[in-house]
# Entry
Amino acid sequence: MTEHNYSQLEHVIAQLSALLGPVQKQQQVHHQQTQWPTILIVGAPRSGTTLMLQWLASLGLFAYPSNVLNRFAYAPHIGALVQRMLFEQQCDPSGDFTDLRSTVNFNSDLGKSRGALATCEFQHFFRQYIHHYMPTHLSKEEVAAVDWQGMCQGLFSIQDVFEKPFVTKAMMAQFNLASLCRYLKSAVIIHCHRSVKHNMQSILLAREQYHGCREQWWSVKPKQYQQLATMDYFHQVAGQVFYTNRSIRAQLGQLSHALDIDYDEFCQAPESLYQQLRQTLASLDYQIPEQYSGVKQFHAKQKQVLSDTDMSRLLNAYQFHCRANDCNPVVGSNVL
# Structure
């Protein structure tokens, strides 16, 4: 898309936001806790979070942020109604919009998927409440300034339209999950992680693809970002993975309903996670079918693309962060 087209899109969205934003604010105060759980996907960048969202969306059991809904991030309740009206067959009895049919797909490019009903990261929604462009650790003052209740009411307003649990990436809030879950009483956290070497490689390649160089930071910023920013890009990427996963795991220990999911194991047997999720949702008094009907297996992307020298420097950098924090350079089944 050209810069001109982006400008036109932003202009239209700004107009709609001015018209519909106040309506959303008036409407969402009526949406308190719902009977449907909220599923939040968190993890280091390039750890499988996009595939996780696509998979859950493909099951047909959960509402999720689509590209259509993302256009209405400032008025998600209205966006959900518009999406249902245009894309659900039940709302199109005469078939006037059959040319608009769209489905979930498993293609993505740096977290972005093409298609009206393809998944999206929904960061425009979260940025209304968390005033950072990239996911980052929030200070106590920043946490206090966030309207967490308003954020959750916005999510509840989507659930009330689709009458399903809502699943979304929550990387914008993943370093401050306790604050979010204080208002999301029925939240399930899915922490995605993968082998450290392949995770770091993928982030380094993403830097090259997005910025055209390795030196510029890309994606989430853990609490140690300022310290990492002074280091070379090998130590930056290694620290990004190390500190992000460490922060999330520390938080999961304080939360009641959390699943720690390895990318390789998930790709090998998605049904195993489905059954874990089914049991977790049942503990929240929400039932999904016992019989799994989704994709049987995914191809795990674990090929080394970097040179042996670059990979060695990444692994050495990761070990540096491990030693600096007195821990073993092994994360679950993700052995270096």
About this structure: The domain at 17-26+33-335 is CATH 3.40.50 (Rossmann fold). Residues 331-335 have pLDDT under 50 and may be disordered.
